């Protein structure tokens, strides 16, 4: 395991209990998946980050903002949340499979065109779905979205590296020596079975240092960290990371063919780098882009008022 496997990790998550809701089930082939519904109105699918992030904070906050006018469909992506039972391997964890899950959900719900709101990895997933099923998407909302091309993928890791102090880098190296003999699968099992194990404590401390680089206001990084660590399934991340880099994934040409309107919103200090978001703007010809100052990757934590103001304004102007 190396630091690089955390390239597309984003922060989450609160307990499901704060928004108790019946969880619905559907299948895609032999894979059993789950989702939640809130509100009434045109469907908006909420795509979480990670991959592997459990639905919770900040997604319930986004749902609270939208559920009075939209049916918010919160997908528990494969290997996360209630869909955590999906095996994690190179054949199950692919972008094509995640896209297929969204299409099966749309068919299961008998939706026509849907609005997709994707955060971080969820933004890349939303763009990938739009490329594969352009007539099924009414609008795209990309929040601090991962890039649509492998060419700027390493920028995130470089930005995270330079934002860490020498002491943090030394600590991460020492901590990694403690848990590096375990695979992601073994660590995940240990984390849930015995969080007091030294390997798990070292892993948690490593992740804690890592997520601080995602904030402009670093004092807010610990607010939901314990829930994040407990519920996030880190196993899918290296599979998607490897797929993007080894296959040189680049959907920018396909995105240029779309006529779908889009909102691109990000924080000025997002560790992915502004080249990521300008690439999205250039590829999506019918897009609006907004930048929030003094804001990192965790946009709902860093600058919630500015973010929700932009989101509400965009949807009011582009209501289905």
Can you describe this structure?
There is one protein chain. The protein is α/β, with parallel strands linked by helices and about 325 residues long. It has two domains: about 5-155 and about 240-315, Alpha/Beta hydrolase fold, catalytic domain (Rossmann fold), CATH 3.40.50.1820; about 160-235, no CATH class. The protein is built from 13 helices and eight strands. The chain has an eight-stranded mixed sheet with strand order 1-2-4-3-5-6-7-8, sandwiched between helices. Strand 1 (about 25-30) and strand 2 form a beta hairpin.
Produce the secondary structure layout.
Elements: E1 24-28, E2 31-38, E3 43-47, H1 59-66, E4 71-76, H2 95-109, E5 114-119, H3 121-132, E6 137-143, H4 153-162, H5 166-179, H6 184-193, H7 198-212, H8 225-231, H9 237-246, H10 252-256, E7 262-267, H11 274-283, E8 287-292, H12 299-302, H13 304-317
Parallel strand pairs: 3-4, 3-5, 5-6, 6-7, 7-8
Antiparallel strand pairs: 1-2, 2-4
Helix pairs in contact: 2-3, 5-7
